[in-house]
Amino acid sequence: MSRPAGPSAATDLDRRMMGAAIRLARRNLGLTGPNPSVGAICVVETAEGTKVVGRGVTAPGGRPHAEPQALMQAGERARGATLYVTLEPCSHHGKTPPCADAIVAAGIARVVVARDDPDPRVAGRGYEKLREAGITVVRGVEAAAAYDGLSGFLSRVTRARPEVLLKLAVSTDGMIGRRGVPNFPITGPAARARAQLMRAEADAIAVGIGTAALDDPDLTVRLEGMEHRSPIRVVFDRDARLSPESRLVRSAGTVPVRVVADVDRAGVRDRLRVLAALGTTGVEVSSRPDGRLDLAAALERLAASGINTLMVEGGATLAESFLLDGLVDRIALFRSSVIVGADGVPAPPSLAGLLAPDAGFRRVGREAWGDDVLEIWDGRGEA
Question: Which spans in 170-307 are helix H?
Fold first, then answer.
């Protein structure tokens, strides 16, 4: 019986092929919940050299999984081949048969994996099935590179909450908007397009009721050709004040809307029923002693519904609440040369402290988008 090999058994080819599988997996980020977006590549050695004979990525909605797609494409060429997968193949019967069984049946000789699956239904059992069939297993190849695409799923499974990305655009004078002015532009077109791509890769996007009332946003993806990737819209609305005439409610039949409200407050259940009749879904939580919504409980309920990643987009009050409660995992900070001036809405007060040296967040990326700069800050504590 073959024993599992560690990262030291990986070759340069393994690392290159896994890199390709990781890039493949990114194609369906935000579309596969509650499952992760996994990439799989089947490779054979021929007289002419290495040849890719099958590719697969988790389909929208989470099924079919990546591995059976790659194996089906490879057909008989899968026998004796190497399969590269970004996450440990599943070993349990769910809505689809176990991927580990499909790999064994296809005659794969070697499986190279980036990350282990912590789901208790898998958690090493996928490897065990492969080893029992005599398949060589190489684990941990390009694990750090694969983490970004899988971290939301890993968060939901291990912490029972989605991974939270806070997106902010801040002017030179430290403002994120102007009081009373809807959709006040802080960044230019290129940066706004980059933010749209973030939306497309998220399972859900959130705003507070103040932003929903002032801006009356759609919160959909407006990049040409990617409109179908609009995430679930979430409104944190303690008193369920979201207008039935808002764009969010009017479009709830096309792109789902969830309203997080405190059902212990007067009239909230009745207002949620009105909104539900128009196509929204209520997320019932309580308020904390300080009057703020219990965000941790809300995240647990969103995770239970299959949401892996949540992008918090506005406004200042909601952002500050997430920061104060320690519920932000990553920050996408657009720095703009715009000066807002009088009546500006200041950036969340807690932001500067979190981005200070040794405060827990580290800058892991910097990108120029037109006249604006995007900084990516990571507080997850994993490389």
Answer: 189-200, 209-215, 247-250, 268-277, 295-304
Residue 297: exposure state from Cβ atoms within 10 A (0-12, 13-18, ≥19):
middle
Instruction: Provide the β-strand partners of residue 165.
Output: 311, 330
- pLDDT, tens digit (0-9, with 9 covering 90-100), for 87-98: 999 987 666 678
DSSP summary character for residue 154: H
Residue 176: strand, helix, or coil:
strand
Supply angle C-alpha 164, 27, 92, rounded to 5.
75
368 strand-pairing partners: 373
Catalytic sites, residue numbers:
67
pTM above 0.90? yes
Tokens 């990737």, residue located: 229
Per-residue burial over 351-362, b = 16 or more CB atoms within 10 Å of its CB, e = otherwise: beebbeeeeebe
- Per-residue pLDDT tens digits for 259-309: 999 999 999 999 999 999 999 999 999 999 999 999 999 999 999 999 999
Backbone angles phi, psi at 134, to 5 degrees: 85, 15
